[in-house]
Amino acid sequence: MGIAALLCGCHAGHEDKHDEEHKHHEEHAGEIIVSEAQVKEMGIAVEEIRPGEMRSCIKVSGQLVAAGTDEQTIVAKTAGILSFSAGGLTEGAAVRAGQVIATVSAKDLQDGDPTEKARAEYEAAKAEYERAQKLVEERIISQKDFEARRLRYETARAAAGMLNNAPTGGTAVTVPVSGFIKSRLAAQGDYVAVGQPVAVVTQSRRVQLRADVPAHLAGRLHEITGANFRLAGSDKPLRLEDLGGRLLSYGRSVTDGTPYVPVTFELDNRGSLTPGAFAEIWLLAAPRQNVISLPATALTDEQGQKFVYVQIEPDAYVKRAVETGETDGVRIEIRSGLQPGERVVVQGAIQIKLAAAGNAIPEHGHSH
Q: Other C-beta atoms within 10 Å of 11: how many?
């Protein structure tokens, strides 16, 4: 009987050990092992889940526009045929104050070139003024006559002064302030009249973000205090507060011809924020507390289901399905699938997914 009990005890011990191993295997089934070297190579970063504040959002579309105070229009000072400087003038090109970007010449027009007339008038007025200086000293002409000739000379000199910087003759078209060409308003070879706009230059120190809010949401505009946005063609979200942004105004009625109410923000142009670019915009409204959220970079998608990678050991991760909620363009609410205290991959999730699928990273086989 003692031998039988001993055998039963050994058998029970073997079963307990097998059950423990089976349970251990189930707990860590599907784990992905990533070495420390691979973590550095793949740029993997993790974040601990901590419920916090997240803002309610209104997602709309919009556009970057130049701040009006930073724009100046370049105009033709005389009438004639417009000729841009060598290399042309492209939108976005950097220009400096006083730079000659084009010339205007009427040389081949029926009425002749006004710049040549101005030059001739200047030469004549100059000669007459110099002669008058001697005559007034000898009291051959009156002081009144001398002042009249001096005024004619000063006027002619000012009119001809605009020609000094013209590289190929004609009247120079110069840039009033340093900045960037926003738009060209005339083409090479066009006839331009006096005062006709040729181009617009913007200093782009500040730009405006205009959000177009559907009219049925106008009742929530008083809640808006900030925004996040993403430019068309980019996957990088931008935060208004990181760019020195502020709310300028929101409309009280729809824009003419559209069903939208405008909301306008102003921000610093740090980098390549090009006026005219379209954007997705998340308008930030009332805050919500105790929300679990993750950066958008933490999530991967498989046939419409969202997944994250949870770190279960310093070198081990498992894929976890999650249910998502609202997003502010930067972070995404996680409604289920994660608990406070868990650590989730927020950078490098795509690399883990691709590497695991391609067997570049060994799965299972991890000893604890």
A: 10
Amino acid letter, residue 268: D
Alpha helical stretches, state H, the chain: 2-27, 36-42, 114-137, 143-161, 349-357
Q: Report yes or no: 225 and 247 within 8 Å, Cβ to Cβ.
A: yes
| Residue appearing with tokens 């946005």 | 229
Look up residue 131 and give its amino acid.
R
Taking each helix axis from N to C terminus, what angle separates 114-137 and 143-161, rounded to the nearest 10 degrees? 150
Q: Are 291 and 245 in contact (CB under 8 A)?
A: no
DSSP class per residue in 325-349: EEE-SSEEEEEES--TT-EEEEESH
Can you tell me the distance from the alpha carbon of 367 to that of 359, in angstroms, rounded to the nearest whole number? Answer: 19
Q: What is the Cα–Cα distance from 182 to 64, expressed in whole angstroms? A: 13
Q: Say if residues 328 and 55 touch (Cβ distance below 8 Å).
A: yes
Is the predicted pLDDT of residue 47 greater than 50, yes or no?
A: yes
pTM: 0.59
If phi > 0 it is left, if psi is from -120 to 50 it is alpha, else beta; for residue 208 that is beta
293 and 52 in contact (C-beta within 8 Å)? yes
Interval 237-261 mean pLDDT:
87
Percentage of the chain modeled with pLDDT above 90: 36
Collect all residues with Cβ–Cβ distance below 8 Å to 274 and sequence separation of at least 6: 64, 92
DSSP E strand boundaries for 100-148: 100-105
Our measurement of the distance from residue 345's CA atom to the centroid of its chain's CA atoms, rounded to an integer in Å, reads 27
